[in-house]
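Dear colleague,

Thank you for sharing your sequence with our group. We've completed the structure prediction you requested, and as agreed, I am returning the results in plain text so they can be pasted directly into your records. Please verify that the sequence below matches your submission; if there's any discrepancy, let me know and we will rerun it promptly.
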Amino acid sequence: MPARWCLYERGLGGLRSLTGSSAPSDPFLEGVKLMDKPTYGVVLFYSTSAAIRAEKVTQGAGLKVKLIPVPRQLSSDCGISLRFEWHEADVVRSVLEAKGVEIQGIHRIE
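Please find the predicted structure tokens below.
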């Protein structure tokens, strides 16, 4: 069964992971909304300077991105990758191409 995340509405704060497709029967958790865990993508680069430039360019375009270490399952010449929400993959690619930022590849991660 895929992992699910729940967000508490009643001021309980924070996130708690649950498994299953419905909220637990605990009355304390009544009104919990279940949301799918977000899917991310990463951009790999040939150099650290390209990764830093890509972060500035994409943030300047209003995208929510973050520099992170390259995930273990991927290989890269540079140890830094740019994480973004997967549904924005086409926009990220377009912005980087328009600004001439050289990339090694874009990959979906879960």
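Summary note from our side: The chain is about 20% helix and 30% strand.

Kind regards,
the structure core
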